[in-house]
Amino acid sequence: MSSQRTQQRKDKMSSTISDEAVAHYLDCHPEFFERHALLLGKLHLPHQTGTSAVSLIERQVGILRQRNRKLENQLRELVTIARDNDELSEKIHKLCRRLIHANDFGHTVDLIEASLRQDFNSDQIVMVLFRDQLTDKDDYPELRFLRWSSSDASEMKPFATFLKNAEPRCGQIRDAQRDYLFGNETNEIASVAMLPLGPGSEIGLLAISSSDAERFHPAMSTDFLSHIGELVSAALTR
After folding, report:
1. Strand, coil or helix: what is 57?
2. pTM
3. Model confidence pLDDT, tens digit, residues 9-28
4. How far is CA 145 from the centre of its chain?
């Protein structure tokens, strides 16, 4: 009779206390099971496969292991990013050292191409400079790497938005942009980084292509690209 009354009291309590109320209470009193340790031995949860039951402690251990694996993966990603950033910093430092020793404009152009191709492993590089902003250097001949144009030239219309925003851009580029920059070799291009040169893109742009679609993706940070653009711009206009 006593056990029947006990069960009735339990049924009555379970009908008046909601799951949300119990969860809220336990959330506000995490020390509850310290005062009622015997309850831990009675609590069992269905196994994730549904084939058996595991104790609450076993389930907690499983959750902690999952969290630990997630944190380990995040740590590996952070270490990889840090290592990549260190390598990029060293490459930019090397570019800076090269440009400091440039004797003239032609030497500067040659060093920019050599550094981007050798140190940064770029597939193709094209730099477009505006004659109306570099009038003292516009007699330098065009090369495979260097193009001369002007900010209001018709071939610059596909780049109007990019030049106006004056911020590095990564990923896919428009067909008209790709054809002008890289000509007949566009089939090998999977991603491109475009860098404005000078404040407000006033002296031109620098484009770097890769056959790897993930090399320059839209979600990547452009801080290092901005640094490269600033270094190149300063070297060309000094």
Report:
1. helix
2. 0.65
3. 555 555 567 888 888 888 88
4. 27
Are the C-beta atoms of 115 and 98 separated by less than 8 Å? yes
The residue type at 203: I
Euclidean distance between the first and final Cα of the chain, in Å? 99
The tokens of 202 are what? 């006033």
Considering Cα of 139, then 144, then 150, then 155, what sign does the dihedral take?
positive
Are residues 172 and 117 in contact, defined by beta-carbon separation less than 8 angstroms? Answer: no
- Strand partners of residue 65: none
Q: Which two tokens stand for residue 225?
A: 């690209």
pLDDT given at position 151: 84
Superfamily (CATH) of domain 102-237 = GAF domain (3.30.450.40)
The full set of domain ranges for the chain reads 2-61, 102-237
Neighbours of 125 (CB within 10 A): 20
